[in-house]
Amino acid sequence: xxxxxxxxxxxxxxxxxxxxxxxxxxxxxxxxxxxxxxxxxxxxxxxxxxxxxxxxxxxxxxxxxxxxxxxxxxxxxxxxxxxxxxxxxxxxxxxxxxxxxxxxxxxxxxxxxxxxxxxxxxxxxxxxxxxxxxx
Length: 135
Hints:
- The structure is a single chain.
- The chain is of the alpha/beta class.
- It has helices spanning about 15-30, 80-90, 105-120; strands spanning about 60-65, 70, 75, 95-100, 125.
């Protein structure tokens, strides 16, 4: 004797829960892609009202308030910057040097970094700033 089931199993798959998960993942990736990865050296950048977004570059020199220079997260003595720039420049035809100097760094040190870059043949420079708080 065969018994009849009152309810039949669903033959369809409901995509509503899958759509919710995909939407949450999409929102997560959109939000996290907005964060710019900075080097591991913390500096207080000078303020500028006309701050513009700079394109990413592998030529990023950071000068901390103690006067130490870094290419990316790696410390590089000021005397060796020209050699390091020459090695980096081999891969790129028209490099743009981004200088991230703490606002307490004397201008003379920034000029020395620019001179080292010019020795290596780099002629484009960008001094990175940030918008003032509340502006």
